[in-house]
């Protein structure tokens, strides 16, 4: 597979990476100003020596996206035949859709509902974006966390409370609003603080907020760190509320987080949502093929490097509600 990818990339990366580089050069003013550098040496690619650098948009420190994106970047760097990929700290799921669409990052992690909304130009996006999915990944869980001795036991109890809701542009708001709607509440009924997951749980530890959120696979590093100093519990969603939540947004599902994940007295019951890897729809087909192969030819290594990668399979990867990029689809068609 390595030799095949090298041949493919040697033949096409001069065009593909040059295109990406031109897009980035013309659109370098994005929100994160990450300065994607794909195609930094297109001439080298043309001669068969690959030296293109790609960036992957992740999220803030303390969640699952950054280490997951780092694991992907390592695989691409090691197995693509000469590309280098680096993870970028960003605002998270919503911002990554905008950053990929604008060309400020080459590839990004997001939630499937946000990818769908970005492609269709629906809230929180105001225009349609030319994005494709590379693969469906693992499910994220909306952690709504309080200290074990907190009097907050239900979503209904959030009214009037100080809530660290995650970074602005992150993915927590949509599932939080869905949960609150089921209880007759809106975001206006809480006092939100838009903080990174790490900062949010630091503020929870210091007593400056009452609740902290993280949308991540479990165990989430920010929650794990907090739980080493204080016993925690989930603010669970009641069983009878899930039907209305899922009916309004079929991207959501029910996830039970085992009590021993964070040393809790009882399981956490939370909203889950699938994550996807996205690229611009005009990214070179063979470049996307090489990225896809770098990941899915090495799933055992991926799973060994990142706990969430254990939930990534080639069977579920191809089942996305947003169009799969032709380069990824070619790989999946070859591996039925």
Automatic annotation (TrEMBL):
Coiled coil: none annotated. Keywords: Receptor, Signal. Residues 1-25 form the signal peptide. CDD domains: PBP2_TAXI_TRAP. It comes from the Bacteria. SUPFAM superfamilies: Periplasmic binding protein-like II. PROSITE patterns: PROKAR_LIPOPROTEIN. This is TRAP transporter solute receptor, TAXI family.
């Amino acid at each position: 597979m390595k030799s095949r990818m090298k041949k493919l990339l040697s033949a096409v990366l001069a065009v593909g990476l040059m295109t990406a580089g031109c897009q980035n050069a013309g659109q370098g003013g994005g929100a994160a100003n990450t300065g994607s550098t794909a195609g930094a040496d297109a001439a080298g690619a043309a001669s068969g020596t690959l030296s293109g650098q790609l960036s992957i948009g992740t999220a803030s420190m303390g969640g699952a996206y950054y280490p997951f994106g780092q694991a992907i970047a390592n695989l691409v760097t090691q197995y693509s035949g000469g590309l280098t990929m680096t993870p970028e700290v960003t605002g998270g799921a919503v911002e990554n859709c905008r950053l990929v669409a604008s060309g400020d990052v080459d590839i990004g992690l997001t939630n499937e509902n946000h990818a769908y909304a970005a492609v269709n130009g629906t809230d929180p996006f105001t225009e349609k974006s030319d994005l494709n999915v590379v693969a469906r990944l693992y499910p994220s869980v909306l952690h709504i966390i309080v200290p074990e001795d907190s009097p907050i036991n239900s979503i209904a109890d959030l009214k009037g409370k100080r809530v660290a809701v995650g970074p602005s542009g992150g993915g927590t708001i949509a599932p939080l609003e869905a949960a609150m709607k089921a209880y007759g509440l809106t975001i206006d009924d809480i006092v939100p603080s838009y903080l990174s997951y790490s900062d949010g749980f630091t503020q929870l530890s210091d007593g400056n907020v009452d609740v902290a959120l993280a949308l991540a696979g479990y165990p989430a590093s920010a929650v794990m760190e907090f739980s080493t100093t204080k016993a925690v519990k989930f603010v669970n969603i009641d069983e009878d509320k899930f039907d209305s939540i899922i009916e309004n947004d079929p991207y959501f599902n029910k996830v039970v987080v085992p009590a021993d994940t964070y040393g809790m007295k009882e399981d956490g019951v939370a909203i889950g949502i699938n994550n996807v890897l996205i690229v611009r729809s005009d990214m070179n087909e063979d470049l996307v093929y090489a990225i896809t192969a770098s990941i899915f030819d090495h799933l055992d290594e991926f799973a060994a490097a990142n706990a969430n990668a254990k939930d990534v399979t080639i069977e579920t990867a191809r089942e996305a509600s947003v169009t799969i990029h032709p380069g990824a689809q070619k790989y999946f068609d070859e591996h039925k």
